[in-house]
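Inputs:
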Amino acid sequence: MPIVELHNIRKVFDTKVAVEGLSLTIEPGTMFGLLGPNGSGKTSSIRMMIGMTVPDSGDVSLFGSPFNRTQLPRIGYLPEERGLYKKMRVIDQLVFLGCLHGLADNVARRRAKSWCERLQIKEALPKKTEELSKGMQQKIQFIAALLHEPELIIMDEPFTGLDPVNAALLMDTLMTLRSEGRTILFSTHRMDQVEKFCDGIALISRGRLVLSGSMRAIKSRYPRNRMQIAFTGSDSFLSNPAILEAKNHPGVSELTLTTEDEAQQVLAAAVAAGTVINRFEIHEPSLEEIFIEEVKRSFGETEAVEA
Amino acid sequence: MHNVWLIAKREYFERIRTKGFLIGTIVIPLIMAALVFGSHYMASRAKSESHIAVVTTDATFAADLKRNLESSKNSQMKVDVFAPSDAVRQSLDAQIKQKDGTLAGYLWVIPSPNPSDRPIYAYKARSAGDIATESALQDAIQTVTTRERLLAHGLANSDIDALTTSIKLDTSASGNTEAAFFTAYLLFFLMYMVIMLYGMNTARSIIEEKSSRIFEVLLSTIRPEELLAGKILGVGAVGLTQIGVWMLVTFIIANSGISSMLGGAGHAPVSIQQIGFFVLYFIFGFLIYSSMAAALGAMTNSEQELQQLNMLLVIPLVFCFAMLTVVIPAPDSTAARVVSLIPFCSPLLMNFRISLTQVAPWEIWLSVVLMSLTIAAILWFSSRIYRVGILMYGKKPSIPEILRWLKHS
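Outputs:
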């Protein structure tokens, strides 16, 4: 039973099409990355998932049944635009938000305290939000989304504005939550995180789904035609016709080859030319490369159609 | 309903904890009271301390005037009597120029050459601004001369007392108009104040949530109509608390006997029924106007935009005030009945009519139903606007866009 199931949803704001024919499925206990360039419809899709806006057409199902507002307390949501009451004390704020999600006052208070300890911001509890740093506020909001122990955690760009230490702390927390069986959906355009941690992804561009599925399945669709070579000496081998594209840095080149099989031949040619090879590696395209390629293609196609 | 309660509770407790609330509720009324009492105290002291001299050849007149000024209910002056002479004039002139002297002025009575004419009463004061003493003196001379003339015509003292007693109209048969006017005006000003203060606060708190973007978290669990209703009730309860404190203080002051000291005889007590209607219509009026303010808050994105629109709240209120001129002379006329049923006017005009005349129960019920429907309609309208407005950030909506939004969501 999928936790989230979007079927062919469409949303138009006035004349702008925000989301068009989007379908995706998120399995329980997984971490799912929703990717897309700015303005591609990530936030609009998430808002329709939790009933903040209603799709013009298409169906939303959560926890195996059609969307209905009683499901909302089972979801924790961190919006992209962070917001807390500036003049309110952190503890009061967390208790208030916890109560809105159906918790009893004392339960919310206890959990707020233990979460703040866990995220190392215990000293913030009696303070007003406006006295806190931005990173701290973000942690508070992160806690607010988790206080009611939701089964589905939806985070819109959770890591923007966090330093690496705090970003890692939050990521670890999310990983722990996943190991406890929660389902996590987050949107981002930081590919490295997605590549390392996500079980499944969906890539959307201009409101349309470009790519979706499990990480492994997507990667295996692309040929292992990338090679990285670190060398000293002559770089004459770089003019090899099997090289489609080359990014040259001092002493290192990242090459895209016509086919997977050409790698050995390029290496042999380099050795033959007397170049000293320090390191040689064949790998699949990174998610970032796939992302850029697919987004470019989606724009190219639409432009072609429009022209 | 639970969510509405939570929103209202947060709004209420966060607001009454602010310094602004404490200042507005306690300090401002204290300052006002201090000013009123202080000025009254100063005025009463100034009068009782006045010390004047009367220079006349007419010993009876001098004695009567002295008695009147020293022991009447309006003044407690100290009066010295002298027979006219140049030496007296010089001495008195010197006294009123003297810096630390007590003499406030002197009255010089110059008899008219024609005995049937009134004498000339010349008053020379230390300060030309001492109006209280002057007017007390003028009243006293008037009373004394009238009495003298009447006595001269052979009337007995008791007859003169009976003649000079001021009369009072008895209006008890037609209802207590004074109290009715008092409540109507009180209600009007309370409404006006509350709408400007708290109606706008409702709008402001909605805008604040938009700019801090907390609404997105809230809307992920609750409906916009719950949010707006909670805001209206929460901010409204703050307003009611503040007004309650003010009313309580006023009530205590009015009953502590200080009010009679302040000079007002006090209006006749308002009936329990009138208080009941006052409270009922006050609450409805409050809800109508603050839900309108909430709609304005939902439509705008900044305080400045809100300022431009707040006339929309004041206009219906001013209309009500203008309609008082229709209701007062003929509270049972068709025109008065119709305007008092308009939901935006009922809180003021229906309540006013109830205190002036007998209003049929069905009219009262109808006004309550109309007001309730209006509040529901405004809430429905503003939650639509709110939902669509916040999700299409930043842009200031035009009227056609607002109408299109109503179809969305």
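Remarks. Residues 176-407 of chain B form one domain. Chain B has two domains: 49-164, 176-407.
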